[in-house]
Amino acid sequence: AGEFAATRRGPPLKTTALSSLTKVCDVLGVSAQRRKNVRLTVCPQVTQHHVWRGALEEVLRDLRADMGALEPPSQAIRMAEQIASACASFLSETADAATSASPSWMRPTPYRRPSPSPPPAKTWQEVLDMFTDLGKSLATDERLAGHAQKVEAMKEGLYQIRDIIVERDIAFKEARHQDCLVQRNLSKNLGHSSRDLYTLLLFYLYGTVRDIEVHIGKCLSGKEGKNVTIHAVKFLVDGDELAVRSGIKQLSRALRVFSFVWEAANTDTGTSNDIVVKKGEGAKGVLKLQGHLWGLGVEEKTVTYRGDVFKVHQIKLP
C-alpha cells in the first residue's frame, strides 16, 4: 500500500512522513556511525535558546490558528484554547523586556525603601505543566491529532529543562548561563529519533514546525551504491497555480532536509572513525535530488525554486 510509480521508468514510491532524523536517515541509507555525526552536527545549531523558544511559540501559534477554524468547537477544544493562550502569554511575559528602558537588574532600588522579597523564579516546569494539560485536551479530538503529536514531542525537551529559569528579564550573565543550560541539556538528551529535535530542525531551517509528508523513491548507483538519487513527489487534487506553488514549497522543504542531513552525515566531527576524508566526492558519494509534482489539469513545465528544479507533470486519465 502507498506505492506508486512516478514515471514508467522511475523508482517505486512510498508515502513517507518525515517526522524525525531517524526517518530521514532511513531514506538516505545513512549508517549507524554516520548518524552520530548527524546528531553532533545538528544539535549545537538547533538547540540554541532562541530556536527553542521560537519553535515552542510556533507550535502554539499553529495550533491556535487551526483550533480557531474548527466548527463546532468541543468543550475540550475550548479548554485547549484557554491553555494555549495562557501558555503563549506566559512565554511572551517571560521574554526579553523590549518595552522597558532598562532591564530590572539595571534599575536602582529606591533610596531608603526596603526592597520586597523577589518572587520565586519561574522555570520551564510551568510550561511543561501547561503542555501536559494541553496534550490531554487535544487527545480527545481526532481533528487535531497532528497537533497533539507535536505537543507531545515538545514535552520531551521541556522535561529535560524543567528546572531551568525561563525568565529573560534578569542579569545578562545569568540569562546567558540559563541559555547555555538549555542548549546543553537539550543537546545531551534529545536522541536521534526525537521528534522534538526534528521539530527544532524544521524551525531552524524554515521557521515552521509542521512535519513534511511526501512520496519518496530512491535509486542507488556507483561503487557500493554510495550515490543516491532521491525522487520526492507530491500529488495534487486541485491543479490551480496556487496549489502548484504550495506543492513546490513543500517539496523544496523536503529536499532541503535531505540535503542538510546528508551533509551533516558526511561531515567529519573528529569523533568518527569510519569516515575517511579523501579528495573529490568518492569518499561520501553523491546525492541527487529531484522534485516532481503531479496533478489533474496542471500545465506541464519545469520550475526553479531556491536553486532546485521541479518538474510539474499532468495526470492524464484514459
TrEMBL record:
PANTHER family found in the cross-reference section: EXOSOME COMPLEX EXONUCLEASE (PTHR37763:SF1)
Biased composition, class Pro residues, residue ranges: 111-121
Annotated segments matching region Disordered: 99-121
Protein species of origin: Aegilops tauschii subsp. strangulata
Domain of life, source organism: Eukaryota
Lineage of the organism: Eukaryota, Viridiplantae, Streptophyta, Embryophyta, Tracheophyta
Protein name: Uncharacterized protein
